[in-house]
Write a structure and sequence with these properties.
CATH topology: Aminopeptidase
Radius of gyration: 15 Å
Order of helices and strands: EEHHHHEEEHEHEE
Structural class: alpha+beta
CATH architecture: 3-Layer(aba) Sandwich
Helix content: 25-40%
Number of strands: 8
Number of helices: 6
Distance between the termini: 24 Å
Strand order of the largest sheet: 1-2-3-4-5
């Protein structure tokens, strides 16, 4: 069971009881614009997303996207974690937060916890991140994490150009 604690946050594995949160997050206009439309429109779709994405990733890879909760209240505010994509040589860090929790340092704090886990527990030597070139806020987060822009790339042939950032540990 993956559990990462930071000063203000607790990151834990998703389970099916998180479907309400996933439905809300994945339908935020900012999520659809910056990350993509996952076609999650119902609670059943959200459960399928969890059953086909984060949940099997924990067993298959030893990591995955994690629910980010406020330690003080237990409220789920976002997700952050590691993803193994076929199109990328290295493990990718990703994050998304409900807009009301932006600009409070939560993305950086959660990502720092995930990066420490990647290095110290998983023994990874490098992680990458992909971002829409127009997503200035996310690019600032990656830069604050010490990640450096490496190149433009397409994740899929019919995709837009994305910025690839990387960091070696």
């Amino acid at each position: 069971m993956i559990q990462i604690n930071t000063e203000r946050l607790a990151l834990r594995q998703f389970d099916l009881s998180d479907a309400d949160f996933i439905l809300a997050l994945l339908n935020e206009p900012s999520f659809i614009q910056n990350i993509g439309d996952r076609g999650v429109r119902t609670l059943a779709d959200a459960e399928k997303y969890l059953e086909n994405g984060p949940i099997p990733s924990y067993a298959r890879n030893g990591f995955g996207l994690l629910a980010v909760t406020l330690t003080e209240t237990g409220e789920t505010i976002g997700m952050c974690g590691l993803i193994k994509r076929d199109a990328l040589e290295d493990v990718d860090i990703g994050y998304a937060f409900l807009p009301k929790f932006w600009s409070k340092g939560y993305a950086i704090e959660a990502a720092q916890g995930v990066m420490k886990f990647a290095k110290e527990v998983l023994g990874l030597k490098r992680i990458v991140a992909i971002v829409d070139p127009a997503n200035d806020d996310s690019i600032r987060v990656l830069e604050k994490l010490g990640m450096k822009f490496e190149k433009l790339m397409k994740l899929y042939e019919d995709d837009i150009d994305l910025k690839l950032f990387g960091i070696n540990f």
